[in-house]
Amino acid sequence: MKKIGVFVCWCGLNISSTVDVEKASEELKNYPGVFYADDYKYLCSDPGQELIKKTIVDNKLEGIVVAACSPNMHESTFRAAAEAAGLNPYRVEITNIREQASWVHSNKEDATAKAIQLIKSTVEKVKKSEDLFPQQIPLTKKVLVIGGGISGMTVALEVAEAGYPVILVEKEPQIGGNMAKLSETFPTLDCASCILTPKTAEVGRHSNITLMTNSEVIESTGYFGNFTVKVKRKPTFVDWKKCIGCMLCQEKCPKKTNSDFEHGMGKRKAISVAFPQAIPYRPIISEKECIYFKTGKCKICVKVCPVDCIEFEQEEKIIEENIGAIVVASGYDLLPKEELGEYGQGKYADVIDGMQFERIASASGPTEGVIKRPSDGKIPKSIVFIQCAGSRDNQKGRPYCSKICCMYTAKHAMLYKHQVHDGEATIFYMDIRAGGKGYEEFVQRAIEDDHVLYLRGRVARVYEEDGRLVVLGVDTLSGEQVRIEADLVVLATAVIPSIGAKALGQTLKVGTDTYGFFNEAHPKLKPVESMTKGVFLAGCAQAPRDIPETVSQATGAAAKVITMFSKNHLVSDPQVAKVNEKICVGCLLCKPICPYKAIEPEIVEVRVGCRAEKRQVATINKGLCQGCGACSVACRSGAMNLSGFSNEQILEELKSLCL
Amino acid sequence: MMNMTEKMLEQIRDLFEKKNIKLFIGFEKGFEKFSRIPAFAENYDEAKSMIIDEFETPLLAKYLIRELGEVGAGAVEKSERVGILTRGCDYLSIRRLVVDNIILRENLVIIGIPCNGLIDPKKANKLLGEEAQEITVDEKIVLAKGEIKSREINKEEILLDRCKKCIMSKVEESDILLEENMDDMEVSKDYSAVEEIEKLTTEERYEFWRRQFDRCIRCFACRDACTACNCRKCIFDITEPEMLEKTVATSEQFMFHFIRAFHVAGRCTACGECEKVCPVDIPLGLLNGKFKKDIELLFDVDEAGIPAEIEPLGEFKLDDPVEW
């Protein structure tokens, strides 16, 4: 029988007020296998850890149980203490008698009995514990950043500055993302491109950053530290290396079409660059609109190009890259207006969304910053802003708060009032959420200095009557129905994950929530890590957020990558699955079940009596395996076992609890 | 039917002569009247006793595990292959073994025969009122003769229970087809027996199953007969950790039957062999049927148990509706 030590923590009054810790340690002293048992006020404190170390050495303990808080909190603390005392850290197990006993019960007697029972079952588990040793995993010190918006660029710049190579993949032809479309930014009203373009320029020229715009990640294999990704580089039909960016082609191109960058507010040519400060400043031909692609004639761009860089025969290329870490910064889109029936389902030209308003308010936008309505180009005398258009609305399937709309709507109203002094700006809101440095002051400024009318209530309908838009809503503070005739209606439509985020998640094997936002590993303590090791999250890909918050989170993600790259090799958690080749029948039922694709078949030679036999068995890639245990549950014969949570250990725990 | 037997023997002779198989597995007459037992032939002479008729037969697929060896060894020489007589239900079981990577399909020579249901002599005896001495089958009418009585019976009435629920009457991938496949049998899903049990209260249901499981002598015949039970070493034969204690206690009886049912859940082809071999008549088909019904309902599959590369209970999906 192993010599096991049991330490019961008081956690001040957290545990001791509801669990009789002294009784627990006394009772455990007499439990078979327990050589030493004691209780202590704060085991996580320095003297507490010293006690554990000294006891292990003095009594030559072969395993210990620490009954304290959740293993999420201090398992690593106690394992490190045991390791310092010469005990394999995986012979330390935690019994959670705080979250699972003292905090959830009020009856001291019952809570004590439960705690004792839980500790006993952990003792049984430790009896079956084995020494486990981490493995070294090689590491490619190169990061892939998906998304070239403000979050992706921040990550790229931080990691590149730390001296590691970065591949920045962006699906649009230029970087800058949604921020490049914004007019001015709250709460300081400085112009978005003025603060963004220094960043895009730096990304463009940084020697450690390889920019892949007009590209998409289509495949990812491997595991943390050792991913292999395939990037699809879509054709631009222009040789960007030869191109000098004179834009003669754009000037002379005869085909005009709606610009995606302008969100339908402006036009562009079939060969074009999205905006004047675009990085890279190189044109791209849109295959859908180009006259040559449709009819085989035209080629005006070819004629005017001074360096002969138009390549109609360009094809897409697939590039394979080995990388060590991935940062997902795929950003956001807005809920299409077409999904909002009560606001006209997108059939009225003068009902626009927030991003469209940004474009008409932007100095580099189609109206050169003059706020004109799209239908007839008149300057609106009355604008109604509707907040929470789709957000906080269970019926639209978006019960969450989009977080940025309160602020940008206040900004929109303010920008409008600064231009049209006698205009009327009305905002329908549910609550004003202005938590942030200088945010509340900003909203107050809109109300007090710029006389924006805030009406608390929801809008029931927006419709057209005699050529004018009518907004029918309710002011819940006065209890009265409100009917406003408006020249322009601006909807603060819900922030949704960028289109294709869910597919990207499946490519990278990173989970997304019901709405398609990427799941973080822990909502509080691991906000930039995904559930898949080596894949980090930044910006609106994870949840709606504004620019300052995005930049902070992106910097955090970059720090995580840099920390990972600061080591010469990675250490894998030894608590992963292992196969008993003697029992494994090679049915591979475990293979489709593994969320991390860590299981592959292998032919091994086994001696049966006096002859060798070739057998198919399952093998585990220890780098890919995350120790989730799905395979060991699926394995009928029990050949698949999770180290540290073996079938033997769990069975012993259960026996102790149930019998 | 003699016709079919002759056709089969011809094919077997051909297979042995051309050195295409080392062994053929089929059926021959058993000791009891109308019983059919597995027969193994290593040459044509040994195969001469084999027959094909319409009486209940045991499932042959499981013998393939013993005869074919490891999939890791790869495909064997042509002359080392094994031939097997196969009906639709046998074919499902063979597919189960292939999908589970227990045997390689290319090491098999399948002689397929069409089937529109096998008859249960016990049912005939019951209807006749005495032990039948002679049973002749003619299309849909069966003539049963005893020592005293003789009676014409509709074949439908004396079909095996499992044939009434047959989900595969054709052999899809046979190497040799003795006769063209007939039309599909008309089968309606019948979960009435399962639904009867579902109607019981929890206590009544527990009492029902306790009565059934307490009879179990743990002979493991249900496991040994099952093609879905194809582990190298069964979990119940492993001593460390001991999943099943040797004590005969209700808890252990339940443990055995639950684990067995869970291990074949979604993989059971509903061949009914487990229930047939049980010496104490535990209605295992009822338990397997409940799983089948629930899987079809909860996982939105038409027919649970048809072996496929990815099984309803054996897949990880990123868009799994339940977070974990």
Describe it.
The complex is a heterodimer of chains A (659) and B (324). Among the domains of chain A are: 124 residues, Rossmann fold (3-Layer(aba) Sandwich); 165 residues, FAD/NAD(P)-binding domain; 71 residues, Alpha-Beta Plaits, CATH 3.30.70. Helices cover 28% and strands 27% of the residues of chain A. Chain A has 18 helices and 36 strands. A 5-stranded parallel sheet of chain A has the order 10-7-6-18-31, with helices on one face. Chain A has a 5-stranded parallel sheet with strand order 20-27-21-22-23. A 4-stranded parallel sheet of chain A has the order 2-1-3-4, sandwiched between helices. In chain A, helix 12 packs parallel to helix 13. Chain A is globular. The mean pLDDT of chain A is 93. Chain B is of the alpha/beta class and 324 residues long. In chain B, helix 4 links the parallel strand 3 and strand 4. Chain B has 12 helices and 8 strands. The longest helix of chain B is centred in the first third of the chain and has 16 residues. In chain B, helix 8 crosses helix 10. Helix content of chain B is 34%, strand content 12%. In chain B, the strands form 2 sheets. Chain B has a 5-stranded mixed sheet. In chain B, strands 5-6-7 form a 3-stranded antiparallel sheet, covered by helices on one side. At the A-B interface, helix 14, strand 34, strand 35 and helix 18 of A face loops of B.
Given helix and strand content, the structural type of chain B is alpha/beta
Number of strands of chain A: 36
Helix content of chain B: 25-40%
Number of continuous helical runs of chain A: 18
Uncertain ranges of chain A? none
What is the end-to-end distance of chain A? Answer: 20 Å
Number of domain units of chain B: 3
Low-confidence parts of chain B lasting 5 or more residues at pLDDT below 50? none
